[in-house]
Amino acid sequence: MGRDAATEITITAGGSEGIFDAITATITAGDEVIVLDPSYDLYAPVVALAGGWTIRVPLDPTSFGIDWDRVAAAITPRTRLVIVNSPHNPTGAMWSPADVARLASLAEAHDLLVISDEVYEHIVFDGRSHVSALSHPGLAARSFVISSFGKSFHCTGWRLGAVVAPPALTRELRKVHQYNTFGAFAPAHWAAATMLREHTDHLVALGAFYQAKRDRFVDGLARTRFRPLPVSGAYFQLVDYGAISDAPDDEFARQLCLEHGVAAIPLSPFYDVPPAGQRLLRLCFAKTDATLDAALARLEGV
Ligand SMILES: Cc1ncc(COP(=O)(O)O)c(C=O)c1O
Question: CA within 20 to 30 Å of 166's CA: 11, 195, 287, 295, which one?
Answer without folding.
Answer: 195
